[in-house]
Amino acid sequence: MPLHRDMLSTDETYMLRCLQIAKNGLGTTAPNPMVGAVIVHNDNIIGEGFTSAYGGSHAEVNAINSVSDISLLKSSTIYVTLEPCSHYGKTPPCADLIIKMGIPKVVIGLKDPHEKVAGNGIKKLEAAGCVVKVGVLQKECEEHHKRFLTFFTKKRPYLILKWAETADGFIAPEPLKRGEEKKPYWITNTKSRQLVHKWRSEEAGILVGTNTVLADNPQLNLRDWSGKAPTRIVLDRSLKISRDYHVLDGKQKTIICTEITDSNSHLEGVTYKIINFNSDVPQQLCNVMHEEQIQSVIIEGGSQTLQSFIDANLWDEARIFKGANNFTKGIAAPKIAGRNQQQIQILTDQLTIVRND
C-alpha cells in the first residue's frame, strides 16, 4: 500500500525522503547497502546524501558534506534508512563522524544485520549522548534494503526469477531438428526488453543454464540501458560452451559453475567454481554467489534452471512477461505460485510480479 504524506508523522516524512534519495545508489553500491540520509534543522532539510558507488563515501558522510553551515549540525537531526556503521572498512565509521560533528539526534529506519555493526553503531551513538530513535518506516526500509538484508540474514543473494512466455505458455519454440535453420523470435516487445536491461543494471549478477547459452548465445549485458553490467553466472556441467560464445568474451566478470576440475580446460579471466550437479544445485549456486559477495541475481533461464529454484523454494521474486503471440508447441514455461501478485501492462505485454513472502 503506497504511503500518503498527509498520513505520515514528521519523522516518517523525512524517512520517506531518505528512501527516495537512497534509490540513486541502486546497482552501484553493492556489497554496501544503498542508504539514504537527510539532515533536518528547525523542520528544514539542510543536507541530503546517498551511498556513493562502492569504495566511495557513505550516505551520512555525503549528507554532512552537503550542509553549507556546519554550525547548524549541533542542533539538527539526521535521518538514515539503516543503522550507521561503527567499524572501519573502505571508509571510517559513520557513527564516529556523527558524534564528531555533534549531531544530537539520530533517527534510524532499521538496525544493520551485518555482524560488524548489528547494534554497535546505535550503542556507540547512545554512549556519546545522542538521542537515538529506531524503527521509523521499518517495513518500508526493509523492503528497500531487501537485497542487503537477504544476503546477511539468509546467507544467499536476493533471487529474482525472470522469464517471458507466450500467450499459450511457452518460453521457446521446440528445439531445432538437424538441418533446420534457426529463425529469430521475440516473445515480448521492445519496451519490455529495454526494461529487462534496466533490471540487469540494478542487480549484481545474472544466471543462466547451459542450454540457454547454447540455444540463444546471449550477451547478458546492458545493450539497451546504461550502468554497470552484472556478473555472469553460467552453469556448464561438462564445459560444452566454447570460447566463441558471448558469455566467454571477457567483457564482464563471468563465473562458470562446472564439475570439470582440469584447469587445462579453463579459460584465463573466467572464474570456475566446482559444484556437484547430482545434489541440490540451487543451494550450491547460492553458496557460490554468497562466497563471491553477489547480493542479488536475476535468473533468466532456461526453463529447467528456473524450475529447479522454484522447486527448491529458493526465490524471492518472479517477474513474468506474457506476450501476445502463440507458439502452439515448444518448451513449456515454469510453474510457480506465490502471493502479492502485481500486474502491469507494457504495451501488448503483461508483466506479472510475484513475491515469495
Automatic annotation (TrEMBL):
Record pathway: Cofactor biosynthesis; riboflavin biosynthesis; 5-amino-6-(D-ribitylamino)uracil from GTP: step 2/4; Cofactor biosynthesis; riboflavin biosynthesis; 5-amino-6-(D-ribitylamino)uracil from GTP: step 3/4
Keyword Transmembrane helix: no
CMP/dCMP-type deaminase domain location: 9-132
Keyword list, A-Z: Hydrolase, Metal-binding, Multifunctional enzyme, NADP, Oxidoreductase, Riboflavin biosynthesis, Zinc
Stored Gene3D superfamilies: Cytidine Deaminase, domain 2, Dihydrofolate Reductase, subunit A
Catalytic activity: 2,5-diamino-6-hydroxy-4-(5-phosphoribosylamino)-pyrimidine + H2O + H(+) = 5-amino-6-(5-phospho-D-ribosylamino)uracil + NH4(+); 5-amino-6-(5-phospho-D-ribitylamino)uracil + NADP(+) = 5-amino-6-(5-phospho-D-ribosylamino)uracil + NADPH + H(+)
Binding residue positions for Zn(2+): H58, C85, C94
Cofactor binding summary note: Binds 1 zinc ion.
GO MF assignments: 5-amino-6-(5-phosphoribosylamino)uracil reductase activity; diaminohydroxyphosphoribosylaminopyrimidine deaminase activity; zinc ion binding
Cofactor dependency: Zn(2+)
Protein's recorded name: Riboflavin biosynthesis protein RibD
Organism: Maribacter aquivivus
Species lineage: Bacteria, Pseudomonadati, Bacteroidota, Flavobacteriia, Flavobacteriales
